[in-house]
């Protein structure tokens, strides 16, 4: 674990690798996005998490183009907007994302949320599988999928394999969820671990709302690190891929400076709670009809 660095990667079910630390751009205004993503690249991040719904894919693409970093060293994620799933919308969104970012391929495309009903989810997945075969996307995944949505996907992927042929139903590489010590989602974690699906952690620093929590204090003192850094380390050591967001250059740096200490097993446990306390929306609880 101590050997984790900002350049460490995890191998996904797709066969491609994903950098263990991502840089999130939710609520990053489009007019500052290029500058902050460029700063993140200078700091050493190589993984940017955007979404069509964030309205900042274009400045992310501009920062990637201007970075001078070889394209294959950068990992770019986008997402099909919630409530706009379905086959045709998804197909169109993939092309729009490629167009606005100027990228030749998207590293990872996620279904942003399971809303929209069964047919919409199925259609979206089929369109993503086809886009992957066409070389437009490298890896596929979902976001905010609870166990009921994942079970449904598994059945659907079997059906799709019968329809399209063996190995032609795609593989889920990632499930992106709100994850932190107050929302560890052991049910989804177990479901995904069994199948090699990597969990990405959004809101890994709980939007700064719990930095004063008592359990963090002994660790910030012992390691001389901030509460945000301890939370990011917890996430990394859980095997998650945390996606901290900041538009503040000093915090962008701080959130990447988490590779020179390691929490012990007891310290990891000391942070764990049985709470279920989301700080963002929670589509994982949506019914299959929603
Ligand atoms: N798939 C989904 O549905 C979904 C939902 C939410 C988020 N996400 C992804 O996950 C990323 C992260 O989630 P998030 O942005 O909601 O939450 P977050 O990363 O936990 O927190 C971001 C907030 O914390 C502040 N902050 C950042 N670093 C800090 C530090 N070191 N100390 C104190 N405060 C700090 C930021 O302020 P400043 O920016 O002002 O510095 C911002 O207000 C998003 O950007 C997005 O890419 C995905």
From TrEMBL:
GO MF, one annotated term: oxidoreductase activity
Keyword Hydrolase tagged: no
Domain annotation NADP-dependent oxidoreductase: ranges: 33-272
Active site: 54 (proton donor)
Keywords, comma-separated and alphabetical: Oxidoreductase
Annotated SUPFAM superfamilies: NAD(P)-linked oxidoreductase
Record's keyword annotation contains Oxidoreductase: yes
Site (Lowers pKa of active site Tyr): 79
Residues the record lists as binding substrate: 112
Pfam family, one: Aldo_ket_red
InterPro entries for this protein: AKR, Aldo/ket_reductase_CS, NAD(P)_OxRdtase_dom_sf, NADP_OxRdtase_dom
PANTHER family according to UniProt: 2,5-DIKETO-D-GLUCONIC ACID REDUCTASE, ALDO_KETO REDUCTASE FAMILY PROTEIN
Family that this chain belongs to: Belongs to the aldo/keto reductase family.
Protein name per UniProt: NADP-dependent oxidoreductase domain-containing protein
Species, as recorded: Coleophoma cylindrospora
Phylogenetic placement of the source organism: Eukaryota, Fungi, Dikarya, Ascomycota, Pezizomycotina
């Amino acid at each position: 674990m101590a050997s984790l660095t900002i350049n460490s990667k995890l191998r996904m079910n797709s066969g491609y690798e994903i950098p263990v630390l991502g840089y999130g751009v939710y609520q990053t205004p489009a007019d500052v996005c290029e500058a902050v993503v460029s700063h993140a690249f200078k700091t050493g991040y190589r993984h940017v998490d955007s979404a069509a719904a964030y309205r900042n894919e274009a400045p992310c693409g501009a920062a990637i183009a201007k970075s001078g970093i070889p394209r294959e060293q950068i990992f770019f994620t986008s997402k099909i907007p919630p409530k706009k799933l379905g086959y045709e919308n998804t197909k169109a969104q993939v092309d729009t994302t490629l167009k606005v970012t100027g990228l030749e391929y998207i590293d990872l495309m996620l279904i942003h949320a399971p809303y929209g009903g069964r047919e919409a989810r199925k259609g979206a997945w089929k369109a993503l599988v086809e886009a992957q075969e066409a070389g437009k996307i490298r890896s596929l995944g979902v976001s905010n999928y609870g166990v009921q949505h994942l079970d449904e996907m598994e059945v659907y992927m079997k059906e799709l394999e019968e329809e399209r042929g063996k190995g032609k139903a795609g593989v889920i590489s990632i499930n992106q969820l709100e994850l932190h010590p107050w929302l560890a989602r052991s049910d989804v974690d177990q479901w995904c671990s069994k199948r090699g699906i990597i969990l990405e952690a959004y809101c890994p620093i709980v939007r700064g709302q719990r930095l004063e929590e008592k359990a963090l204090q002994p660790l910030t003192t012992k390691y001389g690190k901030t509460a945000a850094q301890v939370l990011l380390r917890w996430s990394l050591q859980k095997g998650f891929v945390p996606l901290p967001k900041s538009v503040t250059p000093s915090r962008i740096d701080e959130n990447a400076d988490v590779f020179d200490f390691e929490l012990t097993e007891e310290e990891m446990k000391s942070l764990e709670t049985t709470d279920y306390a989301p700080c963002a929306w929670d589509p994982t609880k949506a019914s299959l009809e929603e």
